[in-house]
Amino acid sequence: MTNEELAARAKTGDRDALAQLWEQNRGVLASIFRELARKAGARMAAMGVTWEDVEQSFFLAVALAVRLYEPERGVLFASFLKYPVRQVFFDMVGWRTERQKHDPLGKSVSLDEPVRGEDGSETARGELVPDPTDAYEDAEEQFYIEQLHAALDKCLDALEQEQAAAIRYRYYDGLTLAEAGDRLGCNAEYARKLEYKGLRRLRSPQNIRRLEQYREQIVSEGAYHGTGWAAWNSGGSVEERTIIRLEGKGLL
C-alpha cells in the first residue's frame, strides 16, 4: 500500500495504517532527522537531547504529518514529511519555545488570513511570505545533485564503453533503441542488449556501496517506490526508475 493510501486511512483513525506508515518510512525519517541533528549538534548537547531521544520522536512526527497532510494537494507524503519532522525536532531542542517567548504574536497578523488577489481569488498570507531558508535549501539540493551526478558517472565509467554509451543515450538523451543503435552503429536489438548488460553491471557490489549514501533521498522522492532497496541487488527496474527520476530532476 502506498504512503498516500496509508495516510488517508490513518487520517480516519486507522491505527494499524498509522503504524504501517511509520514502519515503512523509518529510513526516510532517520535521514531527515539525522541531517537536522548534524546541523544542531551543539544545541542538542546543550539541551541534553540524545539520538535515542530523536529516534523516539519518529512516530510523533508521522502522527503529526498525518494530521496536517492534505492528499488532495497532490504532494507525495514522503516529500511532505520533512516539514512535520522539523517542527517536532525544533520543539525537542527548544527552538520554537524560545522563538515564541520573543515574538509578539498578540500583535501579529495571522498567516492564515486570506489575501484577496486582483482576480478575486484568495490566498493565505503565509503562502505569500518568502521563506528565508529557501535559498539555503536550494544550494544544499544543488550540491547534493552534483555529488550524485558525479557518483553515477563513476558507476557508468566502470562499464564497457558501448554499454555506458547505450545507457547514456537512452536515459541521458532520451533516445529510442533504434536511435541509440544508429549512434552506436548497430541495430535496435543489439542496443537493447548493451543497455540490459550495462544495467545489470550497475548492480555490482562496488556500485551499490558507491550509491548507498544516496538511497534515503531517492527513496523519499519515490524513485524506489514499490520496489525497495533490495531490488537493486536482486534485479528489477530500479535502475531505470532511478535514472528516469534523476533525469526528471534535471540531474542528467
TrEMBL record:
For this UniProt record, the keywords arranged alphabetically read as follows:
DNA-binding, Sigma factor, Transcription, Transcription regulation
Where does the record place the RNA polymerase sigma-70 region domain?
155-203
Q: Which GO terms describe its molecular function?
A: DNA binding; sigma factor activity
Query: Locations of Basic and acidic residues compositional bias?
Result: 113-125
For this protein, the record's Gene3D superfamilies field holds: 1.10.1740.10, 1.20.140.160
Q: Where is this region: Disordered?
A: 104-131
**InterPro entries tied to this protein:** RNA_pol_sigma-70_dom, RNA_pol_sigma70_r4, RNA_pol_sigma_r2, RNA_pol_sigma_r3/r4-like
Output one GO BP term.
DNA-templated transcription initiation
Protein name, entry field: Sigma-70 family RNA polymerase sigma factor
* Species per Swiss-Prot/TrEMBL record: Agathobaculum faecis
